[in-house]
């Protein structure tokens, strides 16, 4: 016990002591599930963990020390204010304003902790100061990464009429978790509410910064054409940035996609997102004129409208799923939106990003995705085996080939997105845009941000009055899965496969009734038909991300690998697709890679059916986002197959190049690309490929050249300079950046030569 001359007010000391374990538990609780909150919780916890041993040894029963009492009181006040700020967090407040407030408190907690320890040290005899001095040393080494520094830097650049550096904008949006169009609209509205506050003098430059960041996001994500056909601007919703299926007019006169503006209003907003004017009423008036114009345009150009519900879940911010105990108190400091906020209950933790779509596979093995255009209930695959994109950045979907599939049933089939390319650590993702090359390529959209929870529709008695009947049927089928009869098991697995295909409510009911575990058990069935139905049922169930978690928790990864190795061709395809779907969850990328899935996926990539190769390439791409898996993929021999698949006749150029761009970030990957004659083909893609293909080929070549003089010489010998010059002038923003960097590297290399 430290003995020194002081008397501390016990209430402040006790509160401070109690705050430390409370913060540690808060960081791991549901209340701190948003990464922005967790970041600051961890920073504060790190500081408090350093001072805790000193506080535990303080003996308060001596004479008073005014300076130490003041330091402890100030530290306790700052800690309490930070916790109150966390408790008052809700998804509709300004993230920037929150960052300015909390970072000020983090700085105070750091300073007061240091001053408190220094005060204690000054009161102790030299022989008793070792622990305190060690704490002081640790506190002096604490470095907090303040988001507001980059915000201030970018704001200053805007004020001086300069365009902020792209890396500064990217760092700011990443740190604030502002990644979707909806999140930027929400931030803009929240900042508008702060204009009258005298305690936020940064409001004007911050609003300008958000407008600049929002404009940059729209330019990089909104599709301007589909298969070379320009999209009329008035056909796109300002919220979804995509073609409207059900356009409606709000009282401000603006037209929006119904489900997007309805969600906006349900959150409690009473202003028009685009004009920021207060809405006179919340009635939504169908815009039949625009709807008919869009329908005619789609029919004339053979374009499929995107599913607005799918787009909503893909673009819905993570922070909108808020626990009830996070709803702001009426007088809480962060409650600038409290009058209009209607917080949504948590409805699941589905991960989501704008990416390649996986939909439920039907009994013929196709992946079901309905046509929203009445001109056709069925669609055929293109030469890639995929439906041509209907919305540029957000739609790649296989379609059902059921001859009896009705339009209504088709429209119910939901899709699930996976993490797209831009998630790779070196940014080898594909940017939004459309293919301009004559070849038909798969759309690989750019990711908007990290994986984020999505809202799952709960079963509604109004929309599905037969759910009780479905549940009864499912429970009977689950019992049949456990039968000793192979025929009964096969029939039950097939029925569940078909039920899981139709809609999200069925998938939720089937999982809630406990079907996942017995279906996983049947993956080891000696009957190949039963095995196929079981793995396809799991694939269809995995469209719901809650089910993804449940399937992985049921130890399904190893059985799925078993199917990948032993199943019939369709079972192998669907096993690969299921592994891809599960890998949307970040931790599953690690588990799948370490469980031995990569070698059989590479085998399927090289020797599978055309669809099997596509599923394998998609799964390998997703797994290659996790750095540890890259070497495994290279060692399994994937590069040779990927180079072969860069032949346009295979219909997989974009997929192959996307994976190669990820693998080019490690030495083994670069060597394998060079050894398998991939450089010439990458240069060819830069010249003749799709927008996405060019972008990723340029990224791969940049890694190859900047890490090897030999590869750099080969790239130059293949005549890469002219297509790179063209790409630097007319490619996507990211493609231009890569091409310019590569050309600049070539120039620097020439200048260094004697």
From TrEMBL:
Ranges for region Disordered: 320-451
Catalytic activity: S-ubiquitinyl-[E2 ubiquitin-conjugating enzyme]-L-cysteine + [acceptor protein]-L-lysine = [E2 ubiquitin-conjugating enzyme]-L-cysteine + N(6)-ubiquitinyl-[acceptor protein]-L-lysine
Biological processes, Gene Ontology terms: protein ubiquitination
Pathway: Protein modification; protein ubiquitination
Superkingdom of this protein's organism: Eukaryota
Entries under SUPFAM superfamilies matching the protein: ARM repeat (SSF48371), RING/U-box (SSF57850)
Mapped ARM repeat ranges: 514-556, 596-638, 637-678
Keywords: Repeat, Transferase, Ubl conjugation pathway
Biased composition (Low complexity): 328-343
Domain U-box: 230-304
Chain segments annotated as transmembrane: none
Pfam families the UniProt entry points to: ARM_PUB (PF25598), PUB2_N (PF25240), U-box (PF04564)
Compositional bias per record (Polar residues), positions renumbered to this chain: 369-383, 392-427
EC number: 2.3.2.27
InterPro entries: ARM-like, ARM-type_fold, ARM_PUB, Armadillo, PUB2-4-like_N, RING-Ubox_PUB, Ubox_domain, Znf_RING/FYVE/PHD
Molecular function terms from GO: ubiquitin protein ligase activity
PANTHER family attached to this UniProt entry: U BOX DOMAIN-CONTAINING, U-BOX DOMAIN-CONTAINING PROTEIN 4
Protein name, as recorded: RING-type E3 ubiquitin transferase
Organism name: Rhynchospora pubera
């Amino acid at each position: 016990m430290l003995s020194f001359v002081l008397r501390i007010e016990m209430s402040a000391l006790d509160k401070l002591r109690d705050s430390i374990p409370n913060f540690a538990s808060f960081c791991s609780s549901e209340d701190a599930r948003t990464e922005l909150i967790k970041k600051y919780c961890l920073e504060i916890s790190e500081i408090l963990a350093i001072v805790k041993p000193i506080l535990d040894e303080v003996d308060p029963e001596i004479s008073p020390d005014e300076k130490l009492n003041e330091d402890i009181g100030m530290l306790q006040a700052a800690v309490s204010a930070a916790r109150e700020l966390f408790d008052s967090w809700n998804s509709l407040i300004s993230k920037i304003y929150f960052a300015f407030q909390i970072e000020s408190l983090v700085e105070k907690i750091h300073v007061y902790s240091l001053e408190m320890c220094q005060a204690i040290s000054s009161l102790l005899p030299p022989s008793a100061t070792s622990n305190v001095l060690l704490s002081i040393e640790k506190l002096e080494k604490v470095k907090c990464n303040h988001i507001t520094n980059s915000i201030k830097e970018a704001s200053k650049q805007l004020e001086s009429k300069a365009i902020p550096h792209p890396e500064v904008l990217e760092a700011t949006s990443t740190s604030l978790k502002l990644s979707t169009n909806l999140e930027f609209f929400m931030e803009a509205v929240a900042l508008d509410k702060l204009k009258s506050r005298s305690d936020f003098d940064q409001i004007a430059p911050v609003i300008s910064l958000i407008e600049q960041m929002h404009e940059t996001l729209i330019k990089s994500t909104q599709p301007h054409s589909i298969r070379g056909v320009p999209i009329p601007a008035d056909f796109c919703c300002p919220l979804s940035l995509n073609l409207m299926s059900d356009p409606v007019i709000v009282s401000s006169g603006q037209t929006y996609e119904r489900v997007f503006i309805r969600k906006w209003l349900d959150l409690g907003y009473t202003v028009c997102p685009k004009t920021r004017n207060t809405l006179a009423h919340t009635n939504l008036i169908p815009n039949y004129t625009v709807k008919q114009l869009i329908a005619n345009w789609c029919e004339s150009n053979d374009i499929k409208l995107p599913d607005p519900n799918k787009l909503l879940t893909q673009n819905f911010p993570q922070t909108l799923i808020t626990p009830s105990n996070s709803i702001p108190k009426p007088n809480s400091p962060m409650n600038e939106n409290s009058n209009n906020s209607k917080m949504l209950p948590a409805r699941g933790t589905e991960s989501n990003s704008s990416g390649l779509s996986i939909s439920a596979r039907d009994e013929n093995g196709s992946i079901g995705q309905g046509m929203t255009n009445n001109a056709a209930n069925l669609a055929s695959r293109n030469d890639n085996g995929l439906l041509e994109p209907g919305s540029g950045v957000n739609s790649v979907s296989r379609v059902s080939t059921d001859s009896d599939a009705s339009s209504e049933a088709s429209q119910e089939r939901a899709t699930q997105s996976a993490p797209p390319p831009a998630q790779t650590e070196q940014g080898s993702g594909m940017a939004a845009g459309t293919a301009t090359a004559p070849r038909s390529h798969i759309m690989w959209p750019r990711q908007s941000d990290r994986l984020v929870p999505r809202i799952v529709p709960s079963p509604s008695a109004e929309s599905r009055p037969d759910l009780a009947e479905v549940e009864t049927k499912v429970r009977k089928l689950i019992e049949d899965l456990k039968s000793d009869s192979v025929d009964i098991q096969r029939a039950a697995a097939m029925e569940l496969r078909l039920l899981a295909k139709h809609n999200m409510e069925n998938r939720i009911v089937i999982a809630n009734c406990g079907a996942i575990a017995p279906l996983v058990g049947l993956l080891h069935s000696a009957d190949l038909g039963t095995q196929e139905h079981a793995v396809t049922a799991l694939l269809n169930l995995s469209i719901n991300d809650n089910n993804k978690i449940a399937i992985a928790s049921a130890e399904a990864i190893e059985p799925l690998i078993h199917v990948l190795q032993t199943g019939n061709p369709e079972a192998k395809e669907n096993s690969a697709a299921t592994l891809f779907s599960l890998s949307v969850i970040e931790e599953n990328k690690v588990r799948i890679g370490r469980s031995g899935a990569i070698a059989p996926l590479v085998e399927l990539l090289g020797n599978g059916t055309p669809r099997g190769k596509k599923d394998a390439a998609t799964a390998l791409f997703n797994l290659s986002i996790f750095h540890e898996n890259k070497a495994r993929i290279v060692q399994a021999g994937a590069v040779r197959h990927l180079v072969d698949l860069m032949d346009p006749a295979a219909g997989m150029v974009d997929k192959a190049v996307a994976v190669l761009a990820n693998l080019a970030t490690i030495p083994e990957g670069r060597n394998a690309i060079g050894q398998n004659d991939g450089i010439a083909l990458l240069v060819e893609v830069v010249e003749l490929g799709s927008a996405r293909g060019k972008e990723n080929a340029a990224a791969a070549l940049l890694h190859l050249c900047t890490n090897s003089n030999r590869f750099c010489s080969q790239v130059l010998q293949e005549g890469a300079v002219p297509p790179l010059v063209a790409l630097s002038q007319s490619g996507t923003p990211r493609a231009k950046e890569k091409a310019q960097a590569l050309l600049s590297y070539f120039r620097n290399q020439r200048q260094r030569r004697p």
